[in-house]
UniProtKB/TrEMBL annotation:
<keyword id="KW-0808">Transferase</keyword>
<protein>
    <recommendedName>
        <fullName>Glycosyl transferase family 1 domain-containing protein</fullName>
    </recommendedName>
</protein>
<keyword id="KW-0472">Membrane</keyword>
<keyword id="KW-1133">Transmembrane helix</keyword>
<dbReference type="InterPro" id="IPR001296">
    <property type="entry name" value="Glyco_trans_1"/>
</dbReference>
<feature type="region of interest" description="Disordered">
    <location>
        <begin position="1"/>
        <end position="56"/>
    </location>
</feature>
<feature type="compositionally biased region" description="Polar residues">
    <location>
        <begin position="30"/>
        <end position="43"/>
    </location>
</feature>
<feature type="domain" description="Glycosyl transferase family 1">
    <location>
        <begin position="380"/>
        <end position="499"/>
    </location>
</feature>
<dbReference type="GO" id="GO:0016757">
    <property type="term" value="F:glycosyltransferase activity"/>
</dbReference>
<feature type="transmembrane region" description="Helical">
    <location>
        <begin position="69"/>
        <end position="88"/>
    </location>
</feature>
<keyword id="KW-0812">Transmembrane</keyword>
<dbReference type="Pfam" id="PF00534">
    <property type="entry name" value="Glycos_transf_1"/>
</dbReference>
<keyword id="KW-0328">Glycosyltransferase</keyword>
């Protein structure tokens, strides 16, 4: 989704080219000296042209006299200063954000970037018609609010929580239902519960017990919630839409070290986690560059975070401006001008201060010369680190320009930049880089109440109004800089105009990007989320009036942190020691000593490398072991042994051969099921559903994937019993019904009990599975009735109370329409008409009563085994008819029975889930609802009240068997109605012709066996019995 690409300021975005994986970008590369050489153009010219150039220069030199020589010298000095600055600033980076870094990791970018150009992050275009935006254009009948799971990590009172809290509060205002999860309890929990929603505290073990499929999307905040990503990477949760917000650079700081140590497996691990997210959101464009190694095309940037204002306010309350001035050697009457640049630089490319010094030449000579008798103006350049070459270079150039020695100073970015911003009188932004994000140093300066002068870059002009929040000058007209500077100075002090601008700038910085950030997340959700058919669409973004961060709820925490003298750097690093990044690093690299890995990363443990003597000793040990083993084998070969009785050996051999074919060892549950009348098969697809499955004699797992079957259980392998489930497409569109088809296929091989039941893993996940008391009631009921046309169910269609609690009375078919994108009736009657070959004028939608009774859902029911086989016979034909309509559709190939990604993936599931109700009602089965908690039984839709409504002629078992035989005959003769015919692949294919052919085959084999036995007897009578030799 995201790409990092360089672009020139004046160039169009279409000319940007990607640079991902070409070079590493670093915020703080180690300073390196770059030899700057200027090839002489004259040396490459012919002698005649060279002499002409020399003559021209001589003519110009003769004309320069008097004051002209002085100005020329000034230009040379400024140019020299710029050149030295260019050399020294090759490693300028923001120490504010991170320190350290490895030399040699960054690559030169001079080939990709030229002067006047900058890197630009290009986001992949999101299809607006795909998500909620597209759903607004289609008719929809929703009955519930859209659900989002929000995982906030540790719930600390910090800027990231403030940002997320503000966004989530506005999402709730649009109609979203939010469920908050946190890894640690916090004193802010009541605030979240009061304003956002219920908060659940999770541990690492609890992540596996959450049914993520009930949510329309999951929003994960920070790297600390990595365990949630791991659980969402398992089936059946892989299709849940995930948005991952990353606001810390902890992992970005470690990535260069991983590459240096060549820990490809650790990088691949994180890259796989990043790939799982539909969108990875960063609050700053620099993060997309720092994490570029893990970019899988899903990066997205939503600018806006209160971290700069938060940190600045804490720092301002904890420090005195006058004391900091004295500490740094500045007087109260000194006019301190702070020159800052971009907070993000690229290795071997630092033009900012070279250009700034060139533009500031006239300003310095006007306000900082030794001959000036006015107030002391001191210019501080914040750049590089605190090494002496920076300051020495500035002082040397200051003396050449005739400036006071203390008028120009250097301050390294590895120091406390906040104290310099706080004591400054004017902040001048002198960067030549046109950044995409608003410069954080300007935000903090405005928060401190310092007037700001900045060039007219688009990102600055977007928020700062010239003359109101700051002064903006044209970057192409350096003369305007002098004019802007004079507006802020009056009699050696800040003018009232400057103080007014500073005050307005402080108010602006407080909530500068709050509105844009909130709307950015809402637009992202509208574009990415695809809501299911039964969900109400959220409100329009235009309804949001949020213009501020929710400072009132977090103001107390800011006051507490101000007393702890927490700096901006501390605020960014307060999770370093407890970060999950280091935990995973230690887990995946056990051979790496923790102290060595974090403190002295370049040390190699030489003691662990085997020496030549070690290899010699090891070879001698192996030789002695081989000699001892050979001697023991020879001794055992000469010793007589008793192998036991022949019958016992034969019995043990046969037993081992029998056990060899069992894929899984039988557990206690299978032994307990022996002799019981009922077995409930729990259908699941993926290891993520394991925590929701039951153990014991009543239940048996039914896995739709061979790889995801539980290891220590006797779960049925549905794929092994029905090969079509090995195809991902059919496994997804059939799901639980496919598992039922596999059980019905040669059912006597796996199920020999009079009653059979099924239950989806989702029933336990949604708290509607049978309790222990209800299980006893059900077992006792079926034990008293060995047979019967009764279906017991315990999961209802309106299980959440949302369908039944709507404003309008919902019928069975209206509920089915809601769950199937409004196309349930149309799809059902088309499939029903095609199945029975009904003409168009005949009604094909079976009537369902409106008596207020319950209907079964989630495939959670029990019926007799003969009834189950009859239902499977009907379901196979109906599913085949439904699939044939979808395959033969000439207008569209996408699923019309769903609107979200998950619904389209499991296209037929929701319709097939309700099919048992239509079959049971119209085949005159007694329908009994059993309360999953108490076990009470209640008959639904009594059979006596159905008379006159049931379509028994279509659900007659004789008719279904006849239709089944017709399909089997067509399949046996190769007469397929269409290419991908589903019916023969969903179960047994059997008709009278196959039976007769099998009987003839058995008779032929029997007669061949008799003939061979007769020939053998005649041969013995004629030649006698011949015993084979022992060797033969």
């Amino acid at each position: 989704m995201g790409q990092n690409s360089p672009s020139t300021h004046d160039a169009d975005d279409s000319n940007a080219f990607p640079i991902r994986d070409r070079f590493r970008l670093k915020r703080n590369p180690k300073p390196t000296s770059i030899p700057v050489t200027k090839p002489s153009a004259a040396s490459s010219l012919p002698d005649r042209r060279r002499s002409h150039v020399h003559g021209a220069r001589s003519a110009v030199t003769r004309k320069l006299r008097g004051s002209t020589v002085f100005y020329l010298c000034m230009l040379i000095v400024v140019f020299a200063f710029a050149l030295v600055s260019l050399v020294l600033q090759s490693s300028i980076a923001s120490m504010v954000f991170r320190q350290g870094g490895g030399e040699g990791i960054g690559r030169t970018v001079r080939e990709g970037l030229k002067f006047g150009s900058s890197l630009k992050f290009v986001e992949s275009r999101i299809e607006r018609d795909f998500g909620i935006e597209g759903a607004r254009k289609k008719p929809r009948v929703g009955v519930r609010s859209p659900r989002l799971a929000i995982i906030v990590g540790n719930m600390k009172n910090d800027p990231s929580s403030l940002m997320l809290f503000t966004v989530m509060k506005n999402l709730r205002g649009l109609g979203y239902t939010l469920q908050i999860y946190a890894t640690e309890d916090s004193k802010t929990k009541p605030i979240w519960e009061k304003n956002i929603g219920q908060v659940s505290i999770l541990s690492t073990e609890n992540y596996g017990h959450i049914d993520w499929s009930i949510f329309d999307g999951v929003v994960v905040n920070s790297l600390e919630s990595h365990d949630a990503i791991s659980s969402l990477m398992q089936e059946p949760f892989c299709s849940v839409q995930l948005i991952w917000i990353i606001q810390e650079d902890t992992l970005a700081n470690r990535l260069p070290f991983y590459e240096e140590m060549r820990w490809e497996q650790l990088i691949a691990y994180w890259k796989n986690a990043f790939r799982r997210a539909d969108v990875v959101v960063f609050p700053d464009y620099s993060f997309s560059m720092l994490y570029s190694v893990l970019d899988t095309g899903n990066f997205f940037v939503i600018p806006g975070s209160p971290i700069d204002v938060w940190a600045a306010e804490i720092y301002q309350k904890a420090h005195s401006k006058s004391q900091l001035r004295i500490k740094n050697g500045f007087g109260e009457d000194d006019m301190l001008v702070l020159v800052v640049g971009s907070s993000f630089f690229y290795n071997e490319l630092s033009w900012d201060y070279a250009v700034a010094m060139h533009n500031l030449g006239p300003l310095l000579t006007s306000y900082a010369r030794e001959s000036n008798a006015g107030p002391l103006f001191k210019f501080v350049f914040v750049c590089g680190n605190s090494s002496s070459p920076y300051n020495d270079a500035l002082q040397d150039i200051a003396s050449h320009m005739g400036l006071r020695r203390d008028s120009v100073r250097h301050y390294g970015l590895d120091g406390d930049v906040d104290e310099m911003l706080l004591i400054a009188d004017i902040v001048l932004y002198g960067s030549s880089q046109d950044e995409q994000g608003f410069p954080s140093l300007i935000t903090r300066a405005m928060t401190f109440g310092v007037p700001v002068i900045a060039p007219d870059y688009p990102i600055i002009s977007k928020y700062v109004v010239d003359g109101e929040h700051g002064i903006i000058f044209s970057k192409d007209k350096p003369d305007e800089l002098m004019i802007a500077f004079k507006l802020l100075i009056s009699k050696g002090k800040l003018s009232n105009y400057a103080r007014s601008i500073a005050s307005s700038g402080t108010l602006l910085a407080k909530n500068m990007q709050a509105s844009e950030c909130v709307r950015g997340y809402m637009k992202l959700l509208d574009s990415v989320l695809t809501l299911p058919s039964d969900s109400i669409l959220p409100g329009l973004i235009s309804q949001v009036k949020q213009e501020e961060w929710e400072w009132d709820l977090f103001s107390e925490e800011i006051d507490q942190e101000s007393r702890s003298n927490m700096t901006y750097t501390d605020l960014k690093r307060d999770t370093r020691d407890t970060s999950v990044v280091y935990d995973i690093e230690e887990h995946m690299t056990p051979s790496l000593d923790s102290g060595t890995g974090f403190q002295n990363e370049s040390v190699i443990m030489l003691d662990d490398i085997p020496t030549e003597l070690d290899w010699i000793v090891l070879s001698e040990i192996d030789s002695l072991e081989d000699t001892d083993r050979v001697e023991l084998e020879e001794i055992e070969g000469r010793t007589d042994k008793s192998y036991g009785v022949w019958e016992e050996l034969y019995h043990d051999a046969r037993k081992s051969e029998k056990l060899k074919f069992e894929a899984n060892e039988r557990d206690e549950g299978e032994l307990e099921r022996t002799g019981q009348p009922l077995c409930i098969y729990e259908v699941y697809n993926g290891a993520g559903a394991w925590p929701f499955l039951h153990h014991g004699s009543l239940y048996r797992g039914l896995s739709l994937s061979t790889k995801s079957r539980r290891l220590r259980s006797d779960d049925v392998d549905a794929v092994g019993r029905l090969s079509i489930l090995n195809e991902t497409y059919y496994r997804d569109i059939l799901l639980e019904m496919g598992g039922m088809f596999s059980i019905a296929n040669k059912v006597d091989n796996v199920h020999k009990r009079p009653w059979i039941g099924f239950q989806s893993w989702r029933a336990a996940a949604r708290k509607v599975s049978l309790s222990s008391e209800a299980e006893k009631v059900l077992e006792g009921t079926v034990l008293q009735k060995p047979t019967g046309d009764v279906i017991y169910f315990w999961a209802r269609v309106d299980r959440d109370g949302e369908l039944a609690g709507s404003d309008h009375a919902l019928t069975f078919w209206s509920m089915c329409d809601i769950l199937n994108a409004g196309n349930c009736r149309m799809a059902f009657q088309d499939a029903f008409r095609h199945m029975y070959a009904l003409p168009t004028y005949v009604e094909a939608l079976p009537p369902m009563p409106e008596d207020g009774g319950h209907w079964s859902s989630l495939h959670s029911w029990v019926m007799s085994t003969p009834s189950f086989l009859e239902f499977m016979m009907f379901s196979r034909m109906f599913a085949d008819s439904l699939d044939s309509l979808h395959m033969n559709a000439s207008t569209t190939t996408e699923c019309l029975l769903g609107s979200s990604v998950s619904e389209k993936q499991h296209c037929y599931c929701r319709l097939l889930e309700l099919l048992v109700n239509v079959w049971a009602y119209h085949s005159a089965r007694t329908m009994v609802y059993i309360d999953p908690n108490s076990g009470s039984l209640e008959e639904q839709h009594p059979v006596e009240q159905r008379k006159g409504f049931m379509w028994t002629k279509y659900f007659n078992s004789t008719l279904l068997k006849s239709m089944d035989e017709d399909l089997a005959e067509a399949a046996d003769e190769g007469d397929h109605p269409y290419e991908r015919w589903l019916w023969p692949r969903t179960g047994e294919v059997h008709w009278q012709g196959i039976y007769e052919r099998e009987r003839e085959e058995r008779y032929r084999i029997k007669m061949d066996k008799k003939r061979k036995q007769k020939e053998k007897m005649l041969e013995r009578l004629k030649f006698g019995y011949k015993q084979k030799t022992i060797a033969g």
